[in-house]
Amino acid sequence: MSDNIKETVAKNLLYYRKKNKITQKELAEKLGVKHNAISSWENGVNSIDIDTLFQICKIFGISVNDMYASPFHQLSSLKNIDVSKFDTAKVVSLENLFSTLKDLSIENLNKVNIYVENLLTNQQMEEALTVQAAHGRTDIKVTDEMSQHDDDIMDDKNF
Fold first, then answer.
1. What's the pLDDT band for 110 if we cut at 50, 70, 90?
2. pLDDT digits (tens, 9 = 90+) for 62-95
3. C-alpha–C-alpha distance, residues 138 and 102, integer Å
4. What is the structure's pLDDT at 136?
């Protein structure tokens, strides 16, 4: 395997392993190899044999072509985002975000990623709670007086 191809596969192996949130040890166990083999592949010290490469691609749910593609081809998916459904404020916010992110170190980019994942999880939980709170009670008979009391609480500015 030429050095350029080996380097590309090494970078993509690292990218897809991290994207799939799999440790070197976990990937090694799935492949039946020692965990230091994964490290040597990711660092471009050793080449991956073709059978193992096919196994890795199956684990990650990608094609072999993805492993041989430029490590930056993953960013091309950003071009495929349909922004026509975004309002102007969201588009501007995304542009500002990408402009800022490009200057961060990889360590800080990883922190941003974790923070964004946490924000999204919180948002989804809040949305789920809002939907649940919008449904009326089914375990008891709710009187008009009880409904009015609940509405008063929800309308209370100090709540």
1. confident
2. 989 888 887 566 565 566 667 667 777 777 787 7
3. 51
4. 62
Helix (H) / strand (E) containing 23: none
* Distance set, CA 4 to CA 44, 53, 65, 68, 87 (Å): 10, 16, 15, 10, 42
Please give the span between the terminal C-alpha atoms of the chain, in angstroms, as a whole number: 65
pTM listed for this prediction = 0.51
User: What CA–CA distance (Å, rounded) separates 66 from 49?
Assistant: 16
User: Whose structure tokens read 């230091």?
Assistant: 36
Give the span between the Cα atoms of 75 and 73, in whole angstroms: 5
- Write b or e for each residue in 1-16: b if 16 or more Cβ atoms lie within 10 A of its Cβ, otherwise e: eeeeebebbbbbbbbb
R_g over Cα of the chain: 24
Q: Dihedral sign, CA of 147, 152, 155, 156?
A: negative
Encode 53-107 in three state secondary structure: HHHHHHHHCCCHHHHHCCCCHHHHHHHHCCHHHCCHHHHHHHHHHHHHHCCCCHH
Task: Write the single-letter amino acid at 20.
Answer: N
